[in-house]
User: Fold these one by one.
Assistant:
Number 1:
Amino acid sequence: MDTKRAYIDPEHPDPAVLHEAAALLRAGELVAFPTETVYGLGANALDAEACARIFEVKGRPQDNPLIVHVSRPKMVDEIIAHWTPAAEICARTFWPGPLTLVFPKNERIPDRVTAGLNTVAVRMPDHPVALALIEAGGLPLAAPSANLSGRPSPTTGSHVWEDMRGRIPLILDAGSCNVGLESTVLDVSGDVPVILRPGGLAKEDLEKVLGPVELDRPSVTGVPRAPGLKYRHYAPRGEMYVVVGPKDHVLDRMSEEIKIGRYQHKRIAILCTLESAPQLQLEQPDLLYVLGSRTQPQEVAASLFAGLRLCDQRGMELILAEGFDEGGLGLAIMNRLDKASGHKVIRV
Ligand code: TXA
Ligand code: MG
């Protein structure tokens, strides 16, 4: 299949391009589009066959449900059984934004979308192109991240091109995503809201309006309540370790690991903060990728997946990443680093 990559200005999305994309979606085709978190691979959420194609194209496990994207809260009414007070507060406060809410579903949403669950995950993305596309099609869009299953989520049009070229008819390329990590998935159906996947909206921000929020910890409970979390994800091809602890200890350990890797003739990449870069540069790794300043976690979040992809592009065999505190966005950053490394976290 020929894939068209249409560049689209996020400030002034070209109506002709949106029209073309909407027509493809209505005809049951897939279109990749930008959101503020990561790029999505969209299909008409009410079309079971189109949604089945998403799983084929990504190589996605069949039991991993999709998030449905809407442009107005009213659209949610058409696909859910009912709102809860917590869901209303969240939608009012954080939509459009990097928060996905899990609702009891109604019969209009095909089982294909929810992988047979009786709940449906919904979010309103904070990106002018995503919102305009949903409006142009007049359809809710089921969309997972637009990467091949297992790879880091795409945060630029080029990442989507890398993974989806030849597999879908159209990619809307609006450059980089601001948030860079996927949305926080929150189950608001019970008495206490539960974060099923930490993401671009911090737990602390949710707690300001909801009171205490729980965190589903699959490492403790065994089975994650967001089915997608049991799969290996974000993994670069090289062997990856995350080093966590006081800065001096982390730097010493990373320097030591670089020396060992060099002795083994490995191509070595470092993912680190701006603050640690000067010292680690002295060890001359093959790639030194600065994630951002430790004081600006949103910079780190926005650059992380691009860094992991760069390691693959440059053929890195050993990847050492500096760890972060788990407050604020740090929780989601550490969640992605943990998964990307296959849980190889070294505490020093
Ligand atoms: O930011 C995002 O959320 C991006 C953009 C494109 O919106 N989308 C995204 O989708 O990350 P995906 O498919 O890569 O991840 C969706 C996650 C999976 O872990 C899935 O298991 C979980 O949400 N999920 C979806 N529906 C669910 C449901 N009904 N109950 C529990 N978890 C659900
Ligand atoms: Mg994904």
Note: The longest strand covers residues 99-104.
Number 2:
Amino acid sequence: MTDVAATPTQTVRLSVRDRELEYPVVPAVEGNDGIVVASLLKDTGMVTVDPGFTNTASCESKITYIDGDEGVLRYRGYPIRQLAEGSTFLETSYLLIHGELPSKEERVAFAERVNRHGLVHEDFRTFMGTFPRHAHPMAVMASAMNALGTFYPESLSISDEEAIELATVLILAKTRTITSYVHRARRGEPLLYPDYSRGYVEDFLRMTFAEPYAQYEANPAVVAAMEKLLILHADHEQNCSTSTVRIVGSSNANIYASMAAGVNALGGPLHGGANEAVLVMLDEILANGGDATDFMKRVKNKEPGVRLMGFGHRVYKNYDPRAAIVKESAHEVLESLGASDPRLEIAMGLEEIALADDYFISRKLYPNVDFYTGLIYKAMGFDTAMFTPLFALGRMPGWIAQWREMRKDPQTKIGRPRQIYTGSPKRDYVPVDER
Ligand code: ACO
């Protein structure tokens, strides 16, 4: 029998098998304090069990704060809505990575440095054209992240501050180029070079959608929406992909290898891949006549593999603040493009049903960031398979910031969880003829 009692001196007492033990508490500035249980194994011979790490803080972090019950998200203390409405993606990247908003001069210098590095080596362009046309973009993107490091060995050090800053700039700059190349290579279109005179997001849209040598002017409403979407995706504390980035980096793997691991983790449909899964789901409902009632019945009956994609979140037990902003943006973009999409009606219908239905209310399932993003990306001209690479493009500064924080943290150790062994006890090998 184990008992936990907090004391005002920021320690907790645990009684484990009749032994009284005291463990320190790490106080949070906001949110949950943490009990430091690292010495529990040495003290008691027991480990903690927490599948899915639902109750485990793997680190202390100063980057992002989420209050899942209140639907709050802040980067470095700044509310997400203020950043989405007032900042740019590169400025937010700077904030996440360096901890403070840049001065006017720092802002310009950072943007210029990133933009100037948009070009990739010619061999890298060739490499980007060698994947099969039908390859999933996330697989291509993860391979590209790994390959990127091989082209810039001078930026591979995990301890030299200048090399890390260079890698930071190179990754932000070249992920944009890579994402546009993934889009074009899938269509057999020529890969375009960056245009330094344009902004990060504007030139991303040009590199993605322009015809070679043809004049291209991006729709300002689309540029603004893309800027906002990238900001909304820029960090989300210790989710699956970010934890993957940190744990890979904790083995002293270089930053490119860690980013590639993050891309792979993000690709799963329970994580970043959900934006793609939402569109597949909406298409299916539309193909069946647009009536969501039958689909919702299947969700609530928990038919294998049927979930309301884009709903639910490990941390948010309230409306995901990002989803609210994305929903507004979806209306703005469709309006500015003079487009309409029957799937937006279906999505809003699903949300309306879910928010009034006891199955979803009792489980605190609300729309997450992925529920409406796909509709915007579709309206902009992206294929469904490109949605998760766009998420990865946005998440890059967050992963970089978390990787850098992890490297600087004196408490960082190689990530190595324990297990409870439940397999066979010792037995002797039986030669094949005797089996
Ligand atoms: N549709 C229907 N039921 C759901 C959904 C959903 N989208 N999400 C959770 N539930 C139900 C579960 O069946 C479970 O029901 P039960 O208590 O009767 O067994 C309960 O809600 C709790 O769900 P868990 O899966 O235990 O919650 P967990 O925190 O492990 O999972 C997750 C969170 C993976 C996001 C889940 O809600 C989900 O699968 N959502 C759909 C996929 C999705 O949109 N992912 C994107 C998340 S945001 C992001 O990663 C960027």
Note: The longest strand covers residues 19-26.
Number 3:
Amino acid sequence: MYNKFMRYQNKKVILKKRPDGFPKIDDFELVENIIDNIEHGEIIIEVIWLSLDPYMRGRMSEAKSYASPIKIGDVITGGAVGKVLQSKCSRFNAGDIVEGFTIGWQKFCKTSTHNIRKINPDIAPIQTSVGVLGMPGMTAYFGFFEICKPIPGDTVVVSAASGAVGQLVGQLAKLSNCKVIGIAGSEDKCSYLEKNLNFDLAINYKNQNVYKEIKSFCPEGVNIYFDNVGGKISDEVISNIAPYARIAVCGVISQYNLKQLELGHRIQRAVLTNQATVEGFLVFRFEQKYNIAINRMAKWLKEKKIIWKEDIIEGLENAPEAFIGLMNGKNFGKLLVKVK
Ligand code: NAP
Ligand code: FER
């Protein structure tokens, strides 16, 4: 089957220049190249799905984070799902479905197999391996259960509540017999949260006063805040915390595209007087336990105790526009690009 001289005409999206503030279309470029000469330990993947995630904005900047920045001219790296076309690694065979964090925005990917895992396509649609059964699902699961430490009856607030992580946090909170308030950026999103996901309250932060809505809904205060956004929304939630509140800082998307640091509210007094805990976390901390969470989440999916909303954009060439949309709240649910 394996033919050493097989060549693939690849299309890939590269970083043309570093975004200045919000990313723009001409920060990206679609280019072609040839992929061939597979080496020992490598595989060639035909990419089927791209996962577009907010952390990728950080990788487009120069600043060092948990992963090194994308270089100018390099393919935009990020999570993706695909099919193995050729393998020179004993752990993989042609035809296997795989997922990896560094596959990137391209049609074909030649890669070493360190960061590649095999997916069982019989459990759920394969794109869930970058969604509910992948990084965002793990973030919701471990962030909620291990950082927020829910107690039945707690009032939970989650921001970016209709997104990949937020929609799951809210459902896990309902499964844990908590009261759930979701914060999101449109009427459609809010109505979905209340009608389809049974949230107790949804607040549209674009036209409602977050502080007042929370205060009147739960005057006794918020026990858990799962923070996906930071900024002003979070100031208003944290001004409403209850004694011993737990605040999980998962993401600060409201800050990712700022050119200058934003001055904010001082939260220390609320944290002090309520003896609250504020804890930031990166999902990779829990990597050793992903399998436990994937099995649990897969069971809940099968039993329809958790449902799952995807926002699918067709075509590799539309990935830049889709990513810009993610930074502006255009996506409704987990954002995916269908490449093949
Ligand atoms: P997502 O929620 O599916 O998409 C991002 C959403 O953020 C947008 O749809 C938009 O929804 C909202 N948003 C954008 N700009 C905003 C602003 N200025 N203020 C308030 N909301 C804004 O994305 P996701 O993948 O689930 O990620 C959510 C958060 O979790 C991000 O901050 C991400 O970085 C973080 N995260 C962290 C980890 C970790 O390991 N710590 C792992 C995964 C994700 P609206 O219409 O509601 O504004
Ligand atoms: C994310 C936001 C930030 C994320 C990771 C980070 C995996 C890490 C940032 C850093 O190390 O600087 O959504 O998801």
Note: The chain is about 25% helix and 25% strand.
Number 4:
Amino acid sequence: MPIHNVDIARQFETTADLLEIKGENPFRIRAYRNAARIVEDLPHELASMVAEEADLTELEGIGKDLAEKIKQIVTKGSSPALEKLRSELPPHITDLLNLPGLGPKRVRTLYKELDVVDLDTLKKAAEAGRIRELPGLGEKTEKQILEGIASQADSSRRFLRAQVIPYAEAYQEYLRASPYVKKIDLAGSYRRGRETIGDLDFLVWADDAPAVMEHFVAFDEVREILAQGDTKSSVVLQSGVQVDLRVVPEASYGAALHYFTGSKAHNIAMRKRAQQRNWKLNEYGLFDGEEAVAGPDEEGIFAALDLPWIPPELRENRGELDAKSLPELIAESDIRGNLHAHSRWSDGKNTIAEMAEAAREAGYEYLAMTDHSKRLTVANGLNEDRLLQQIEEIDELNQTLSDFVVLKGIEVDILEDGSLDLPDSVLSLLDIVIVSVHSKFNLPADKQTERIMRAMDNPHTTFVAHPTGRLLLGRPPYAVDVSKLIRHARERGCFLELNANPQRLDLNDNYCQLAKKEGVRICINTDAHNRIDVAQMSHGIAQARRGWVEAKDVINTLPRDPLIKLIKSIKG
Ligand code: DGT
Ligand code: CA
Ligand code: CA
Ligand code: ZN
């Protein structure tokens, strides 16, 4: 199992948390937190550097001591300091940190004063009204804790698709290596490309099912075996992700793949279609009485019901069974450039030249540099003067590039009244003006919608970035009427962004489908803050495919010259 930088960073964070719960030296705690931040921001995978015996101390911010700790984590899987701390504290104490209102300091108080060691003892202490008596906690925190525990219990935990991909792929490789596994697929919401995943659903064709089950539960990331049967098993991985496995014979493989890919709503519609023919569809096959009409492959199931093979992303019962023809879904290879990226000029990690190089290496023909505007001081946003300097730098850089162009742009803040954070005189010098909301998230829906529409009305506006501001599993979307934004984009002739950052992914699939219906084109951008992310389009593409989007619906599938012509033409 490869260790990624985020895993290393998480270990440092946890070490810092545990030190703080123990009440150790603040300098040591801060050192671990700094280490986490440094590691997370590195554009290189540390594990591969360690494998290549590269000198880690040549990286920015990494000294001898930290390099040593990183090496230990990469080679042993975890750091001795962390393991020691874990053995000294109750095993589930870090669960408490996931609750709103609880940081390491408060967890320390709860542990020392009330012997709280896990969610269970925390709940009991809160219910008994003992938390309100503690210094610095109070009645409000007590209530918040109880609410947090309740909502954790019912919002059956989901994971970002991007988060589970590495585990899913490693597990699939591991399973494929078994000589008993003749065919394997990852079905469920993962196959449908959903932005979040409840659990993973593997399907295997094998004749010796028990042998496959033995192999399945022996994977070294398995933390807990929930069930181990002859045809069905379930485990929980170290990361907390649940994984189900079904083993079926060859004759049922296609029917089972269709059934376990879902969605449930699509399955029900398909079953109805079979019933109209007096047939029966289930995970074992498509049957006319006792006789199997189809079963070994998915194509056969669809064909028998007079349907083309339907791509999994469309299987949500949103018209896929009744469509006269299915869309030719966009693929990652259709993308010709990225129209939203940040450099060191604001809160990005790399220079413009480095970003351009990464985009060119990914096969792109253009990259728009769109740093933040001055209002966003935390991100070192650009004022007029700095933007003019940046324009100069880009002009010079473009002189040296022959088969590639860096477009001049800005991600300009939309102010509360819908005006933009920089004057038209300077916006008019740019190729691309992205407008976005980074403040006043809690306006009422009509005000927020109006605010964004005013920004779209600016004659220089090219598109609205991440139109709902949501952070998946984090921050809900702000109140806004997206349908209205879509219709307004059509009238104004500007575009909307599908942000490919796996935590954002708005426009979501439903609004992509609506935009297409309304004839509003979108752009899919990574909003990259470093060179690694410049071409990380895959999550955005998955969302777009779920929204029935074709290459022609997306402006950054255009070659360089038509794209430049198009964005010029919409300037009012
Ligand atoms: P998730 O795991 O919450 O992200 O979503 P899915 O879609 O992967 O759902 P999951 O893992 O509960 O089940 C996998 C597939 O199995 C689901 O997409 C459709 C099928 N399935 C599960 N339960 C039912 C059911 O009660 N009826 C029908 N027709 N299909 C079901
Ligand atoms: Ca699932
Ligand atoms: Ca499942
Ligand atoms: Zn941005």
Note: The chain has four domains: 5-154, 156-248, 250-326, 332-570.
